[in-house]
C-alpha cells in the first residue's frame, strides 16, 4: 500500500502539507463524505446494503473462504479476540460445506475396501 500511496503523491504533485485525499473543491473531506457517496453509488445500482463497513465483513469472509489463517485475520482487522474476527467473517453453513470433502477422511475411503469380521466380531 505504501508504494501505491507514494505513486499517488508523485502523480498528484503539490506540497507535503497538502490534503492527502481532498474533495472536488480541494478542501478537506467531511468524515461522512465517502460513506454518503458510497451509499448513493450503491443505491443507484440497486444494492440495498450500503454500509462502507460491509467492506470489512466482505474482506474477512473472503479471507477465510480462500484459506486465510484466522489468527492473521484477527491481527489484520485489529481485533483483540478471535471471536470478533469470526463474527466479521460471518460464515454460513453453506460456506463451510464448500471444500469439506477435500478434508473429509471418510470420503477418501474406497468403497471396495471393506473390513471383514469373523464370527467373534474381530477383524480377519
Short key terms for the protein model shown above:
124 residues, mainly alpha, 7 helices, elongated
Quick overview:
The chain has 124 residues and is mostly helical.
Describe this structure in words.
There is one protein chain. The chain is built from 7 helices and no strands. By secondary structure, the chain is mainly alpha-helical. It has 2 domains: 50 residues, no CATH class; 54 residues, no CATH class. The radius of gyration is 25 Å and the shape is elongated. It starts with a helix and ends in a 21-residue tail after the last helix. The model has no long low-confidence stretch (mean pLDDT 80).
Helix content: 40-55%
| Mean pLDDT metric | 80
Q: How many angstroms does the end-to-end distance come to?
A: 63 Å
- Shape descriptor reads elongated
**Number of E-state strands:** 0
Rg, rounded, reads 25 Å
**Percentage beta strand:** under 5%
Give the structural class: mainly alpha
Total count of domains: 2
Major β-sheet profile: none
Number of helices: 7
Sequence of secondary-structure elements: HHHHHHH
The residue ranges in which pLDDT falls below 50 over 5 or more consecutive positions are none
